Amino acid sequence: MTQQDRDIVITEVALRDGSHAISHQYTTEQVINVTKALDEANVPYIEVSHGDGLAGSSLQYGLSLTNEMELIEAAVSVCKQSKIGVLLLPGIGTIKDLNEAANLGVRMARIATHVTEADVSAQHIARAKELGLVTVGFLMMSHMAPVKTLVEQAKLMESYGADTVYVVDSAGAMLPYQVKERIQALKQTLGINIGFHGHNNLSLAMANTLAAIEEGATWIDGSVRCLGAGAGNTQTEVLVSVMDRLKIKTGIDVYKMMDLAENIVAPILNAPQEINRDSLVLGYAGVYSSFLLHARRAAQRFGLDSRDILVELGERKVVGGQEDMIVDIAAEIASKRSKVASS
Length: 343
Ligand SMILES: CC[C@H](O)CC(=O)C(=O)O
Ligand SMILES: [Mn+2]
Known about the structure:
The chain is α/β, with parallel strands linked by helices. 45% of the residues lie in helices and 12% in strands. It has helices at 18-21, 28-40, 68-78, 95-103, 122-130, 147-160, 176-189, 205-214, 236-245, 254-265, 277-285, 291-302, 306-315, 325-342, and strands spanning 9-12, 45-47, 83-88, 108-114, 134-140, 164-168, 193-197, 219-222. It has an 8-stranded parallel barrel, surrounded by 7 helices. Bound molecules: the ligand CC[C@H](O)CC(=O)C(=O)O and manganese (II) ion. The ligand CC[C@H](O)CC(=O)C(=O)O is lined by residues 17, 51-53, 89, 112, 140, 168, 170, 197, 229.
């Protein structure tokens, strides 16, 4: 089956984004079993990396149980038709990591930056192209930038050579109309494919994905059993079933997807992925999931509700790397409250 036989191209992210949900504890055997089944179901792309991308395994982001290059090699070795991809965040992963992954037989590289920092992806996108990889720009936290800025940033990635640019709803914070206006604007301005990666913190991953497809996004992420950060991603086996009902061709075998979700992926999880209070508040506040723990600690220290801190962080558009602001903001909220109480 060629790409032309698919109306949308699905990238399965359970073996990358899903790694967040299991604290990066994938074994080689699990990766082999999941990849084999996805390959048999004819999923075009399967992403395999640490949850935070190549070289993410660290005390800061969480140590992987198994070296990701070993997982990538194993996944490549069992694919007859699917292609393996990797995610790379410049600053965490390096060109050396990209070269190593390409040597192992990876066929797609997705270069991820914060939505306003596309300029840091230039070298990595250029190298991915030189390596002959399908090259994707991945604009994380896309809800944080106005449409105009998002378009400018996506154009930068296009100018560096990206084949596709993704709107990434990292915080699961977008509403369908916001997805629509972003995809619409990109479609009008860019000459390359547009993709969408959703998270389900507000229970909108599927609705947002459908909104993206309606506006012309053709590269779509899904995750079996919605395995991913926060409340997880758009659930692939459901997405494929919905696409079938809509007569939108994915090229993926619906029953095989249903079976592998039930028999191979579900047993990997200690508990089903769900929208709990933590993931809901991340979507509601529109902040990075890594802020949750910091906000909880600061809340305890200053006698606050961590939700108030997270909402304030969202309003102030605090981004990953600015975690030190969390304590300052908590202190500010606490001081304002004690002034009000004593007045
Ligand atoms: C920290 C990398 C992140 O998990 C990439 C991604 O999938 C997202 O931003 O949603
Ligand atoms: Mn994600």
